[in-house]
User: Fold this.
Amino acid sequence: MTTPRTGRPTLVVTRRLPSAVEQRLAQEFDARLSVDDHALSTAELQAALTSADALLPTVTDRLSAQVLQVEPLRTKILANFGVGFNHIDVAAAKARGLVVTNTPDVLTDDTADDAVMLMLMVARRAGEGERHVRAGAWTGWRPTQMLGTKVSGKTLGLIGMGRIGRAVARRAHHGFGMRVIFHDPYPPPADVVAELGAEAKRGVDAVLREADFVSLHSPATPETHHLINAARLELMKPTAFLINTARGDIVDEAALVAALKAARIAGAALDVFEREPQVSPELLTMENVVLLPHLGSATQETRLAMGLRALENLKAFFSGAAPRDRVV
Ligand code: DGY
Assistant:
């Protein structure tokens, strides 16, 4: 961490951010920027909470109730870089009088693109094909080589129909002519559903039974922890694929491994994992599985926009205004 200057609110930024964002943060705050981009330990997080007015954390910073119990607490705002904030115990933060903000909207399109990319990759065996070519194993075109599954016209089942779920539905329905079914305990208004050509189902199970592709777009909450478990994987068609760009612990990863081993589903495409950055070793050996390192929002444009949104939230807070993206 670099040394803070005095006079303005002090801010600890836990990871390296796009340089334009770091420059703006350093202009507005006495910002302690990350030098080596390591994930902060509990002790480092607590040192930040006791020494800085604000913290700009990311998904790799586990701000548990225990971490937030630190004394004396100096930090007043956790301006998260990211839309998901399940790594922050928001009840504990609230109890300690902390404001928590996130960065919604700006990453919706990229995350939806990521989900569609994963769907195409796993259906059309793109990872496997690429490994084949890179290994020098390709001997030339033939009619029966590496046949995948057609995507256009198939049924996409969305678990969660918030901003990202809707953006996926739009791409799938209007781009690939897919039938879109979904479950969300808080469904969008009927006109939005109609515009997406989507059809609400009564529950998660109904979606799983019918979908050729199941894509997860729920937040990680105690209610969605292991939402996709062994029993639910059993409901999916043996020809169906599971796509996860939401949060790893929505899926029971051990149950997923077992389902894939037993060919109870056709494949999976995962951008997020239950114990990131660890990945169940069995998954690494499976050709019908696509694995990405949590890349949903990873474009230059979007990471810049996320940083500027976090900055906007911090500036609003310290000017006494209500931050736009306050979650508690
Ligand atoms: C998000 O914004 O939630 C991304 O997954 C990174 O945290």
User: Anything to note?
Assistant: Residues 300-318 form the longest helix (19 residues). The chain has a mean pLDDT of 97. The two ends are 28 Å apart (CA to CA).
